[in-house]
Every structure is written in C-alpha cells, then in structure tokens.
Write a structure and sequence with these properties.
The structure is a single chain. By secondary structure, this protein is mainly α. It is built from four helices and two strands. It has a two-stranded antiparallel ribbon. The longest helix has 25 residues. It is globular, with a radius of gyration of 15 Å.
C-alpha cells in the first residue's frame, strides 16, 4: 500500500495498492529526494514557485491536446481530472489505469 498526501482538495490523504507495475515505474525514475517524481528540486522558494507554475502550464497544455484529440467540447480542468482520477483509483489499481 502507498499513502500519499496531496496539497489540494479537502481529502488530501490517498492510499492505493502498490503493485509490481508501479514498482517498475518507480525503479525506472529514481529520485535523489524522499519524493516520487519530484518536480520541485530546489530549496529556493522563488525557484520552487516557478517550477510549480511551469508544471501547471505543461499540464494545461496537455489537457488541451487531449481535448482536441478526443473532440471534446470543453477542455478538462484540474478539478475535473482530479475528481475523475479519485473515482478511478477507488475502483481500480493505478497500474490498471496506466
């Protein structure tokens, strides 16, 4: 089992089943920090904020690409995709979703 804490939303703690596929992904992307897939790797508050903004812009850009490819009438928002992710994780393992 893997428990992680999100800094967004009203229920920040999530627990998911840790399976072989997840272990393979984690082993492929080793981190020098105590976090999985860290995108903020600096101690500078200003640089950390810049990294967060860049990651959000990247996510938004890719959500727009998904909307175009799927012929969606609206671009999915962070809130929409987070809620969908939560529902999916409650019904299946993360590796099933990947």
């Amino acid at each position: 089992m893997l428990t992680y804490t999100s800094h967004a939303g009203e229920n920040p703690r999530r627990t998911v089943f840790w399976d072989l596929q997840m272990q393979e992904i984690a082993a492929r992307y080793l981190s020098e920090t105590s976090y999985f897939f860290p995108f903020v790797t600096t101690r500078s508050r200003k640089e950390a904020l810049r990294n967060v903004v860049l990651q959000r812009q990247n996510i938004k850009r890719n959500l727009k690409k998904i909307a175009v490819r799927c012929n969606l009438s609206v671009v999915p928002t962070f809130l929409m995709t987070r809620d969908l992710y939560i529902q999916l994780v409650q019904q299946a393992s993360v590796s099933d979703l990947i």
